[in-house]
Amino acid sequence: MGKAYIVDAKRTPVGKARGCLSKTRADDLLVHAIQSVLMASDESQEINNNIDDIIVGCAMPEGPQGLNIARIATLLAGLPDSTPAYTLNRFCSSGLQSVANAADLVKSGSAELVIAAGVESMSSVPMTGFKPSVNPKVLEDENIAIAYGMGLTAEKVVQKYSISKDEQDEFAFKSHQEAILANQDGLFTKEISTITTVETGYSLDSKEYTTSTNVVSKDEGPREDTSIEILGKLRTVFAQDGSVTAGNSSQMSDGAAAVLIASEEALKKYNLNPKAEFLGFSVAGVPAEIMGIGPVKAVPKVLTSVGLGIDDIGWIELNEAFAAQSLAVIKELGLDVKKVNPLGGAIALGHPLGATGSIRTATILSAMKRDNIDYGMITMCIGTGMGAAGIIKNIKN
Amino acid sequence: MALKSGFGWQRGIFEQAQLTGWSAMRDNLIADIDSGKVLLEEPLPSWVSDRSFVYSEEGAFDPKKDQYIPRSSHPVYERQLFKPLLHGEKQHQQEVLLESDTTKLIDIGDGVASISFKTKMNVLSSGVLIDIPNCLDFLEENGFHALIFRQEKEHFCAGANLYEIISAIKLGLLEKDPGVASKAKKKAFEVMHPELPKLGKLYSIKKTVSMLQESLMRLKHGRILTIAAVDGLALGGGCELLLHCNKVVASMNSFIGLVEVGVGVFPAGGGSKEMALRAYSNKETDDIFPLLSKYFEQIAMAKFSASALEAKEMGYLKADDVIIANPNELLYVAKQQALALLESGFKPPLDTTFKVVGKAGYANIMAQVANLYEGHFTYNHDNIIITRLAKVITASKVEENTVVNSQMILDLEKKYFIELLATQKTQDRIEYMLKNSKPLRN
User: Fold this and answer.
1) A242:B375 CB<8 A
2) At A395, phi and psi to the nearest 5?
3) What is the pLDDT of residues B362-390, one digit of tens each?
């Protein structure tokens, strides 16, 4: 087996659902991410003509992000007809799954250059898709947890792992504070590719068409106006006597990211300097009703597969689907909280479902280079009861 | 009148005094003034002592003019047919066509009749259910073309007669029609409880539901054009009644909803059927489910509208139903609507077939129900009720988009309605509502 190298990773800023990127189509977000990662390469034209495959994760691949958005965006990005592409879906880990699939293609010798990406416009497609359809067999007692909303599963985690509302709100507040500080220090600048959005409308007053242009270069989610007190006052929405609120849950968001993966041969052929090596990836199943603890199974599995221990990992991007499940995972795995989401997580930065894995790959890559960290890990829980984890090794030049 | 119309008082001060007894009130006041029990030291004006009433058939007394002044004859008041009267005013001349203990049918001219209920809160008692088809028969046989439901008392209709329902259950009349034993029990019950209202004619619940369904289907599809003139509460069976009328004219202050879940059942007089049909007819795309899901949630949560405008958003009023500001004009506007519809060749709608969301829609709804239950937003018995509602409103046994007819859904309504009434927790809910006028959560 060969090795899979990460040449670069770029992402759009993450907008709130119905926020600054809501009028930008998902395929346009994806085009922007793909073009950004290709532009980052010195040999872009030659690379452009030799991409073996483009793999795009998307959790709700329908409507404006349906019809194999991967191939549509590939062609819209100006890549040649010869560039194939496919869309995959493993819900919230789709953007990391695409990186893993790309790495596997390269490691197995099936491909030399692959773009792995993720995209989600939650402004365009509702959380459960346009026409949810539950199999009647799901209603049977042994299957009913498949039907549980994600918020309810977080409440189940709260019950099972005895997580208090205060702990959740403190975790959420910390996420915002860290994201705000990271923004102030410009720590996301290298990974974010600024996007210019254009909205056309019509003024009933002036009776003229209007165009508004907006340059978006920062994540929209972090809230400077929040506080422990404000978070504490938010109402629970998933259970009458619960503790999970909109404030201690991840934000619904829009965004995309792309990661360029190359083989050793490709590095030489195109004179590329890799930033990291994608070491390994694992997924594991857990009960659907406590899907949030998915990483508890996936993390040990991936560590074993690459021969590392948890202490070897210097930076952990743990997707904050909910503060409750993040706290349970940290507790169960005995994670060092200082290493977990030092720049904030999805509660502050947003969680554009299928894009998150690729977005956080871009984040961890920047962070590992900046802080000279050897190994980093991206992990997340997945709806219907799974966890995923991927490990990246820094290549120090 | 200003205190009643403008401030919501049930009676004005002078009207109440006249109703209580003008002379007695006056004499007591004079005695209190004389004995220094009130702050007033001045004697009452002479016009108070000179008469024994202030409202008469000639009008209202004006002390300045020292005469009775009739009501204004401004043309705007011609729109207030059978407007509410003050105590003592000249009674309206009504041409009564039929009258019983529970309903009154009057001729309002031009081939249009109006029916009002005499029951408490205008509920649909067994007597009302007997009278409605009799009225329709009468109107058909005597050349009438339209019937307006317009109550003379406050509220449109607060639903079914829960007292009759719980009594029928206690007398063992869930599915079986009354026999000698139950009739004797009824009589004994009435003797033992003279303080309670007398029970009307008793039928089995099964028969009562059939009567209600048949009457309401006839209102919608029969020869006589039907219009509901709605003001105040139109809840449960009252809402089902207006859902089946060919047209609704509602005052802004109309509170409309299918709230049966609060008393442990769900709409079984055709209300569930009508909302399934409206979800199919009003759908904005090929997909029936989004609208059906909304209607289901409204019924499951016993929601009712805060205004007639909201009732339109909730689907209880149709887009072309009419909303007016002044409830005193309801009968006039309803009659004009009837005449306009008849002039333009009104034909009653056919009882057409429609598509249902079937087992796929049922599964989707029950997934939502599971989340509500697990999140402790609903109680055990709520779950049992809304599961049955879901079975009915989706026609849960058939495939998605299966074509059904009204009778199929009506039969399901009846089956599950009776099933729920047989449960102790539903009976507890009904009894609690009768005693406390608020729903029991159990």
Assistant:
1) yes
2) -105, 110
3) 999 999 999 999 999 888 899 999 999 99
